[in-house]
């Protein structure tokens, strides 16, 4: 028989069986389809050698009036403004003690210091900076004490522990037991409470930080014992941001990156500003600051209640971030949604703001005085799986619900998905609030990073090519993402052991961590005729275009061409051939017999010879003919 060309249908299809999907691809990792052909995705590299603390949860880019590019980064523990390669900590201050309110206790031979501060309000992992302290316990000098510390344990509402370190981060042990107030002038400056890295779906003993509450007690869920998520937007060259379920904050760019953000309510002209919210946004063109899930005004409209109403929307006066009191002379106002139980998320779209509750979608458009905004119910029955699961793209807004994928460009459309069951049967629904949607406009892709069923951290992704209507899947841990635009490459975050890294993506074919391993794509089963004959495959003629430094094959970069076989759909696949393929490989001789065969193309970048290698597959041919099994 003549050579048979293997040109599989583009996209990954996990809905059919491997045998019923003959002529298609069934599995992949770190591979995309472009113009119908599979290729390895672009590489990534650290944007800076500097690191940040904990897990990145949100990124926002903007430019000041002088042309300086900034990148806002919210993490589980802190908020940073990145200027160049430096992570500038602008985390707001929660409280500052009076001099002498803080006292210390040290034990001989231990680096643990017990800090006493009545009603401190701190939780485990909170940050506090001491100043004005004197030497304690011999080695615990004033230099050691007067710096930022992270809370280790919280034994009571009036005390907590820290671990003494020098300015280089090395442990310092006391050479004598001692107690004192650090010279009588110690001041403790507390940053806003940190959040958690996992979503807590209910209350009760164990839902709060370790050691909080008593056996059988109920801990109310709030910003300090819940997954920490952020929303942020620029108001001109300044920044307004919100820790979900906590305060709304403002950073004045003109004050410099060495100054911290402050509560919006603390601004000099602040009038009835929200003190809590689920999300903050600046509306397009008309420039109202909008808080979703804000605390409403009290009955007399003289103050905010200080308790979140999860369906309540409040907005400021136009062009005025400080004025939130609705008056006949301004455009400040509010509205309460009715369909659903809580606002999950909102995104700016074309001439409107889309708002999702847990069960519905609303459209909010600017109409001017006297109503300011018109809010209309678009659909009841389609919600949002998590606050960051929606993405605005050149082709409209895409989002992920609890059981499907949707798009909106004036009307809601459910996306036909060839990996639907694969994703949702493996999605950790408890951690759905960690889902992070992303867009990669250069490749016409939207996608979602998510936690698989057995994971409490993001470990997988699903991607949709909206121009070619194709789906892709894989494994990659990225907790937030921002597409190219103000910056020339997409950026994303990855963290391990509470040390975070910022990556530039689509930077050639290299990567500078160990995550880009096991790059592969695998076909469905194929056979001869109707599968009633055994087949013999004696030769493979690969069609691969190598890119990057491997394009000449001079450095020995290779792909593995793998051929598997089986005789029945219910039988396990057996690897029959694994052969290296370089850019100069002409053919691979084989001796494979079976009713069904599977082609797998695989690359593993842990091999240093593969560094810089990219590939694009064409139409591989095989020499196949009927045969017996003897």
Short characterization:
This protein is mainly β and 630 residues long. Helices cover 2% and strands 43% of the residues.
Indicate the topology.
Layout: E1 4-6, E2 9-12, E3 24-29, E4 31-34, E5 37-40, E6 44-46, E7 52-53, E8 56-63, E9 69-75, E10 79-83, E11 86-89, E12 93-96, E13 103-106, E14 112-116, E15 127-131, H1 142-145, E16 148-150, E17 153-156, E18 159-163, E19 178-180, E20 187-191, E21 230-235, E22 238-243, E23 248-251, E24 262-263, E25 279-282, E26 289-292, E27 312-315, E28 333-336, E29 343-349, E30 352-357, E31 360-368, E32 372-380, E33 390-393, E34 396-400, E35 405-408, E36 412-414, H2 420-425, E37 436-440, E38 445-450, E39 460-465, E40 470-475, E41 480-482, E42 491-496, E43 499-505, E44 519-523, E45 535-541, E46 544-548, E47 559-566, E48 574-581, E49 588-594, E50 596-603, E51 613-617, E52 620-626
Parallel strand pairs: 2-3
Antiparallel strand pairs: 1-52, 3-44, 4-5, 6-43, 7-43, 8-9, 9-10, 10-11, 12-20, 13-14, 13-19, 14-18, 15-16, 15-20, 17-18, 21-22, 22-23, 23-24, 25-26, 26-27, 27-28, 29-30, 30-31, 31-32, 33-34, 34-35, 35-36, 37-38, 38-39, 39-40, 41-42, 42-43, 44-50, 45-49, 45-52, 46-51, 47-48, 47-50
């Amino acid at each position: 028989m003549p050579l048979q060309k293997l040109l599989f249908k583009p996209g990954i299809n996990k809905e059919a069986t491997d045998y019923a999907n003959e002529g298609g691809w069934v599995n992949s990792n770190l591979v995309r389809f472009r113009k119908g052909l599979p290729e390895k995705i672009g590489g990534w590299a650290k944007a800076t050698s500097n690191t940040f603390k904990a897990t990145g949860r949100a990124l926002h880019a903007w430019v000041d009036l002088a042309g300086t590019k900034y990148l806002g980064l919210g993490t589980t523990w802190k908020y940073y403004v990145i200027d160049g390669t430096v992570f500038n900590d602008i985390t707001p201050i929660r409280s500052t003690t009076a001099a002498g309110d803080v006292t210390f206790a040290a034990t001989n031979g231990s680096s643990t210091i017990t800090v006493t501060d009545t009603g401190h309000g701190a939780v485990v992992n909170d940050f506090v900076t001491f100043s004005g302290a004197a030497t304690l316990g011999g080695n615990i000098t004033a230099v050691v004490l007067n710096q930022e510390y992270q809370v280790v344990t919280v034994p009571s509402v009036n005390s907590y522990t820290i671990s003494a370190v020098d300015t280089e981060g090395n442990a310092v042990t006391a050479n004598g037991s001692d107690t004192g107030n650090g010279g009588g002038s110690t001041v403790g400056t507390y940053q806003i409470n940190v959040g958690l890295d996992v979503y807590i779906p209910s209350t009760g003993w164990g839902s709060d930080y370790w050691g909080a509450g008593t056996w059988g007690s109920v801990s109310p869920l709030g910003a300090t014992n819940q997954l920490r998520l952020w929303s942020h937007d620029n108001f001109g060259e300044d920044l307004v941001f919100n820790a979900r379920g906590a305060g709304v904050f403002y950073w004045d760019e003109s004050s410099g990156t060495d100054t911290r953000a402050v509560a919006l309510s603390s601004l000099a002209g602040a009038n009835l500003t929200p003190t809590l919210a689920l999300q903050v946004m600046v509306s397009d063109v008309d420039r109202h600051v909008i808080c979703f899930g804000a605390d409403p005004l009290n009955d007399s409209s003289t103050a905010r209640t200080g308790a979140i109403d999860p369906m309540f929307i409040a907005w400021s006066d136009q062009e005025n971030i400080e004025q939130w009191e609705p008056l006949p002379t301004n455009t400040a106002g509010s509205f309460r949604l009715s369909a659903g139980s809580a606002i999950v998320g909102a995104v700016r779209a074309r001439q409107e703001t889309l708002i999702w509750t847990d069960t519905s979608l609303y459209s909010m458009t600017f109409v001017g005085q006297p109503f300011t905004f018109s809010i209309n119910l678009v659909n009841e029955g389609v919600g949002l799986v998590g606050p960051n699961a929606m993405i605005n793209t050149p082709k409209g807004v895409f989002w992920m619900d609890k059981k499907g994928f949707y798009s909106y460009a004036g009307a809601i459309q459910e996306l036909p998905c060839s990996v639907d069951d694969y994703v949702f049967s493996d999605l950790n629904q408890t951690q759905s609030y960690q889902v992070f949607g992303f867009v990669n406009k250069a490749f016409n892709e939207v996608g979602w990073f998510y936690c698989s069923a057995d994971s409490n951290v993001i470990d997988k992704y699903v991607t949709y090519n909206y121009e070619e209507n194709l789906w892709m899947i894989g494994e990659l841990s990225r907790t937030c993402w921002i597409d190219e635009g103000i910056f020339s490459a997409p950026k994303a975050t990855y963290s391990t052991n509470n040390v975070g890294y910022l990556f530039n993506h689509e930077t050639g074919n290299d990567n500078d961590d160990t995550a880009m391993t096991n790059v592969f794509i695998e076909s469905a089963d194929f056979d001869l005729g109707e599968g009633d004959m055994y087949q013999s495959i004696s030769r493979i003629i690969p069609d691969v275009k190598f890119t990057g430094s491997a394009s000449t094959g001079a450095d020995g970069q290779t792909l593995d061409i793998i051929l598997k076989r089986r005789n029945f759909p219910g039988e396990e696949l057996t690897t029959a051939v694994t052969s290296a393929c370089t850019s100069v490989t002409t053919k691979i001789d084989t001796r494979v017999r079976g009713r069904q065969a599977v082609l797998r193309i695989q690359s593993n970048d842990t091999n240093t010879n593969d560094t810089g290698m990219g590939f694009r597959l064409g139409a591989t041919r095989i020499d196949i003919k009927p045969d017996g099994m003897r």
